[in-house]
Write a structure and sequence with these properties.
579 residues; alpha/beta; binds magnesium ion; eight-stranded mixed sheet; binds phosphoenolpyruvate; nine-stranded mixed sheet; 20 helices
């Protein structure tokens, strides 16, 4: 038996035999003799037929499965595969001495370049699709066979999975996904969440461990909540799995049954529970679990793993779908939070010695204001009023704010976005501007700028790392990774006082908010809005409903003087209601 850790990408537990899907790298193509041209033209036209039919089928299946938006993506791609403009370009390339693969690669680059050059949002968005479709045709030609499939219920194990392959695997036989690479914001993870298939990604050593038993069928358990996989489980682990599965089913039923209850303490203090989401597909589950809005919509999923930034139209679509799903509750869209720690091909940031202290998030604005203005424009357009009933407030939040000057950058970018939309006559609505408090300085000098904002939200994941100088991703420093550190609590206390003086809303959207003992400490310190991953909502609601605010307040103030996070945790764990 081997246990491996990765990142939780789609919740739930699954077990079954593993199937290792090997995805071949795309070939570059070759030069051909004139006599080969006819055969290459035939290969290309055959690929058009196979690819467009496969995409149509995929679109129909995905739509019929209750995901019409995802289905429409593949239907549009089928039309592109049949586009005569693409065929003309490929045929010219083949006549000029390239094979079908080289012709497709060059034609797609040419067509995509032309589309981008037109400076039109919609056409630019189509450029990325043209490249994707051409890639699929190259796959068809290079493999000369159908994509891998599953002949029985299995857990798919792979290095990474392209989205089209993820969507084309038979749902009824796809029990779970375990990937050596990838991240929870990758497209494969997004689709897995939309389909409710448990997934764990970024599991270092997964393929090497599987290959150590060649030819043997390896049973595998995926824990998509904990981000763990177990290869070849022994009997006691299998028994644990059975227990866990029935306990999880009971907990899921209870969470849904309690979703409509208010998170109110026994002595009448109400706390608003919101969801943290990373993709629009997570909205439905969060609403069902009783989230009263989105306190943190991480938008990085739109920006990573692609060669160009997402278009404004693509962003409007994504933001609007979340705003509509949560209406009439608020949705907080966070501006792009990437940098040297998460490189993006179209954002060439030189290597940095300390990326967490480097050019990340809004610090990219001086070089790339376009990225943030486009994002703000998209959020404003997503807030445009609609006929079918009121939408909730749309909030936009900037991460990595250090002080008043950074706040000015945000306000200036928002002004520019609004002025542009006004001048262009593009329909849009109001957005409430706020910032994340995740750098201690931003709290300490909060008095100097809070009054210019609508709200602030404590990002306690980064606040902990910047307060006690501990890299949040370094597993060797796990003993420091507890946000109940008295230094963090003192900063939260300061933030509550300063936000109160400025009259702005204050929430917490770091993981701390979804950790029941920590959530109680935050309520004791005066926080009235907690935003967390949807699966944590039920446990936090239960903890709040079983507590007295007067006790939480007394204990939270006492916690400020405790010597360690461990000591604080002990006190709040003792306050958790039984059951
Ligand atoms: C945080 O830092 O607490 C936070 C919520 O943002 P992220 O985890 O995305 O950095
Ligand atoms: Mg952060």
């Amino acid at each position: 038996m081997r246990r491996l850790r990765g990142a939780a990408a789609s919740p739930g537990i699954a077990s079954g035999p593993s199937v290792h899907l090997v995805i071949a790298p795309r070939p570059a193509g070759r030069r051909i003799a004139p006599a080969e041209a006819l055969a290459e033209l035939e290969r290309f036209h055959a690929a058009v037929t196979v690819t467009s039919e496969a995409l149509e089928e995929l679109a129909a299946r995905v739509s019929a499965d209750g995901h019409p938006d995802e289905g429409a993506i593949f239907r549009a791609q089928a039309a592109m595969a049949r586009d005569p403009a693409l065929a003309d370009l490929v045929e010219t390339q083949i006549r000029d001495g390239g094979d079908a693969i080289a012709g497709l690669g060059a034609a797609a680059a040419d067509l995509a370049g032309q589309l981008r050059g037109l400076g039109d949002e919609l056409l630019s968005a189509r450029a990325a699709d043209v490249e994707d479709v051409a890639g699929r045709m190259i796959d068809v030609i290079a493999r000369s066979g159908p994509p891998p499939t599953l002949d029985r219920p299995s857990i798919v194990v792979a290095d990474d999975l392209p989205p089209s392959l993820t969507a084309s695997l038979p749902r009824e036989r796809l029990l779970g996904i375990a990937l050596e690479t990838g991240s929870p914001t990758a497209h494969a993870a997004i689709l897995a969440r939309a389909y409710g298939i448990p997934a764990v990604v970024g599991i270092a050593g997964l393929l090497a461990t599987l290959d150590s038993a060649p030819g043997e069928e390896v049973q595998i358990i995926i824990d998509g909540d904990a981000g763990e996989v177990v290869l070849d489980p022994d009997e006691s682990t299998a028994a644990w799995l059975r227990e866990r599965t029935s306990a999880a089913a009971l907990a899921a039923d209870r969470a849904l049954a309690e979703a409509t209850l208010a998170a109110i303490t026994r002595d009448g203090v109400e706390v608003t529970l919101l969801a943290n989401i990373g993709t629009p597909a997570e909205s439905e589950r969060a609403v069902a679990l009783g989230a009263k809005g989105v306190g943190l919509f991480r938008t990085e999923f739109l920006f990573i793993e692609r060669s160009t930034p997402p278009s404004e139209v693509e962003q409007v679509r994504a933001y609007r779908s979340v705003v509509e799903a949560f209406a009439p509750h608020p949705v907080t869209i966070r501006l792009l939070d990437v940098g040297g720690d998460k490189p993006i091909p179209y954002l060439p940031i030189p290597p940095e010695a300390n990326p967490f202290l480097g050019v990340r998030a809004l610090r990219l604005a001086p070089d790339r204001p376009d990225l943030f203005v486009t994002q703000l424009r998209a959020a404003m357009r997503a807030a445009a009023p609609r006929d079918g009933g009121p939408l909730g407030p749309v909030k936009v939040m900037a991460p990595m704010i250090a002080d008043a000057t950074d706040t000015d950058v945000l306000l200036a970018l928002a002004d520019r976005a609004r002025t542009e939309l006004d001048q262009e006559g593009v329909p849009h609505g109001p957005v409430i501007l706020g910032i994340m408090l995740e750098i201690p300085s931003a709290i300490l000098v909060g008095d100097s700028y809070f009054g210019r904002l609508g709200f602030a939200s404590l990002g306690t994941n980064d606040l902990l790392q910047y307060t006690i100088a501990v890299d949040r991703g370094n597993s060797q420093l796990a003993r420091y990774q507890d946000s109940l550190h008295p230094a963090v609590l003192r900063l939260v206390h300061e933030a509550v006082e300063r936000a109160g003086r400025a009259g702005i809303e204050l929430s917490v959207c770091g993981e701390m908010a979804g950790d029941p003992p920590a959530a109680l400490a935050l309520v004791g310190l005066g926080i009235r809005q907690l935003s967390m991953a949807a699966p944590s909502l039920a446990a936090v609601r239960r903890a709040i409903r079983g507590s007295d605010h007067a006790t939480l307040e007394r204990e939270a103030l006492a916690a400020l003087d405790q010597p360690s996070a461990g000591a604080v945790r002990e006190r709040f764990v003792a306050l958790l209601p039984a059951g």
